[in-house]
Amino acid sequence: FHKNKIYIFGGCFGRSLSNDMFVVDVKKRTAIKIKASREQSPTPCARYKHCMVKVAKRECQHKMIGRKRSNRKEDQQVVLVMYGGCSERQAMNDTWVFDPKTQKWTEITNSANLDTVPRRCFAHVMVNISGRLLTHGGTDAWTILQDTYQLDARNCDISKWRW
Questions:
Q1: What Gene3D superfamilies does this protein map onto (predicted)?
Q2: Is residue 153 classed as helix, strand or coil in its secondary structure?
Q3: What is the Cα–Cα distance from 78 to 59, expressed in whole angstroms?
């Protein structure tokens, strides 16, 4: 929920999965499909039972206006972080960041240390606590998971984010 808007990605409609993104304006009572540019940025595959949380850039830096720091909500940039879910064939363990301002997706990779990447899962929970994203539980389709992982999103350079 950001600026009276709710962002919704993917889902299951009957037997087909979606990777569409919608923004619902709760004040205007409208829903618009966002057409992310696939030429300029990759897009996550279709999925359901995933989690997506908001990360305000104020949690990693303050925007300067003149010589004063701004803490006004309208001056704060926001990104949405999505993790996991289930595709048509398997549980997922990928992490994606969506920037509502540019309407572009970026995949977060942990190429430095694959041992710290959470297991593939869906039907889990994720919460943002002061820029630290915690994910817990879910299932991999065979086992109920009790794992907890943390993604430190306090660094404004998302290429440095690691689980």
A1: Kelch-type beta propeller (2.120.10.80)
A2: coil
A3: 10
pLDDT of 71-97, one tens digit each? Answer: 555 556 899 999 999 999 999 999 999
Structural domains of the chain ordered from first start: 36-160 (2.120.10.80)
Return the bridge partners of 3, or none. Answer: none
pTM of the full predicted structure? Answer: 0.85
Among candidates 51, 50, 52, 53, which has minimal Cα distance to 130? 53
**DSSP at 68:** E
Judge residue 106's burial from the number of C-beta atoms within 10 Å of its C-beta, 0-12 exposed, 13-18 middle, 19 or more buried: middle
Partner residues linked to 21 by β-bridges: 9, 34
